[in-house]
Design brief:
Length: about 350
């Protein structure tokens, strides 16, 4: 019996690629997961487009093998959402590269924040903010319009995200210790986190390499801990982050004409997923002050769920398939290919 005749629904690929990891799901139009693998980050801005596509190709092959299927099995749709596809030119270049892979009969590529949004809501009027290592926001309306930001860091007016918050924790700690800035509990907390006697020792270790620069991101949590314990310097940084997240949501809502409408706000990424009360409460209050009918949720499922739901939408699958896919991916554990 051929592989196609054994399938009860069209196959699709759902791909969510971020800075630190990439999830690839092979499933069918009934919402059944056939293969689920996880690999390293695939952001084209970080590793280059050619390298990203080669990595994705390897992971697609791994998903097919896990499903016991050959590379020639027909796949109807591939929904690919990658970090770093921020500009139309980047989306177009990635779409051309992926279209040459032969993974599927049809493709859609876009920024990974769209996958996060779709994973968090079925509403056609929705806005998503991801605040992980960096920060980004996208929105959509029922009439098909979208709102997005370049999300290229300081050059495009961005502020915040875990890496930025971590650097600010270090900055304030250094200035508190040497006297250039106000006193803050961050000084002692940063030194203690790295097991050093002083912030100066941390600075020296990071500079000379005895402490890994990769650990800097850990200071984001140190910042939130200090803020939660009442440190005024840390609280001001958290308040600024809340203002930035709120601004992204409200500006996107105004662009789409949603201010007076009931729309969904999906929050994701490590910083927001942690649900720090100071940040979460301020974002909730800020968005509600602008859009009283907005409904905020923090995404708990992996964003690759959203890529899969977009595929089911494109294939015209029955509503039961979406519920089946959500349930399957909630229970499934990806095969680690890192």
């Amino acid at each position: 019996m051929s592989e196609r005749s054994e399938l009860t629904g069209q196959l699709f690929l759902a791909i969510d690629g971020g800075n630190s990891k990439t999830d690839v799901v092979l499933a069918d139009a009934d919402g059944r997961v056939r293969g689920y693998v996880r690999g390293p980050g695939s952001c084209p801005q970080v590793i280059g487009l050619d390298t990203a596509v080669a990595l994705l190709d390897r992971l697609v092959g791994a998903a097919l093998r896990e499903a016991g299927m050959s590379p020639s099995v027909p796949v109807a749709r591939a929904e690919v959402y990658l970090s770093g596809l921020d500009l139309p030119e980047e989306v177009e270049a990635a779409a051309k590269a992926v279209a040459q892979t032969g993974w599927a009969e049809s493709y859609r590529l876009d920024n990974d924040t769209f996958a996060l949004m779709r994973a968090g809501t079925d509403s056609p009027d929705a806005i998503a903010v991801v605040c992980g290592a960096g920060i980004n926001c996208v929105g959509r309306s029922a009439d098909g319009r979208t709102a997005r930001f370049p999300a290229l860091g300081p050059i495009s007016g961005d502020w915040g995200g875990g890496l930025h918050l971590a650097s600010l924790a270090m900055w304030h700690a250094a200035r508190a210790e040497d006297g250039r800035g106000p006193a803050t509990a961050l000084a002692g907390a940063v030194a203690a986190h790295f097991g050093q006697a002083s912030v100066h020792d941390v600075i020296t270790g990071l500079h000379l390499g005895s402490l890994s620069q990769d650990r800097m991101i850990e200071l984001s949590e140190v910042l939130f801990t200090a803020a939660g314990q009442g440190d005024e310097v840390a609280r001001r940084v958290v308040a600024r982050q809340a203002t930035e997240i709120t601004s992204l949501v409200t500006v996107a809502a105004d662009r789409l004409g949603l201010r007076e409408e009931p729309y969904a706000v999906v929050l994701g990424g490590g910083v927001l997923r942690a649900r720090h009360p100071l940040l979460q409460d301020a974002v909730d209050a800020g968005v509600k002050a602008h859009s009283s009918k907005a409904r905020l949720t923090v995404l708990a499922q992996p964003p690759v769920v959203g890529a899969g739901l977009f595929a089911l939408d494109a294939l015209g699958a029955a509503p039961a398939a979406a519920a089946a896919l959500r349930s399957a991916l909630e229970e499934a554990r990806p095969l680690d290919q890192r």
